[in-house]
Fold Anaphase-promoting complex subunit 11.
Amino acid sequence: MKITINSYNAVAAWKWDLPEGSDDTCGICRVEFEGTCSKCKFPGEDCPILIGECSHCFHTHCISGWLQSESSQGRCPMCRQTFREKVAEVKSSKSNRPRTPAARQPQQRQGSASSSGSG
């Protein structure tokens, strides 16, 4: 049997450099970090990961939405400790450039409004 390949599409692969022992899925949406949260179309820099001092990891959009809800009371959805962002560098293996800590507020998407002032 002879097979001829007429065309093919290349696919790039990468993964987040997460802290040792951390889960590889978002604790809120339960999607793997190599995927995207429900608000993003593509994985990577547009769907960054935020790590709490408690070492739980979340998509930035997921944890921002959680923390803005009244029921969260500013606590981690996994361990219920007061959620504070861990000041650490998260790198994508696609790039050796260190990521700065994720923004405290999610980027506004079309159709959403913000009540916070500009800084």
About this structure: The longest strand covers residues 49-51. The two ends are 66 Å apart (CA to CA). The helical segments are 60-68.
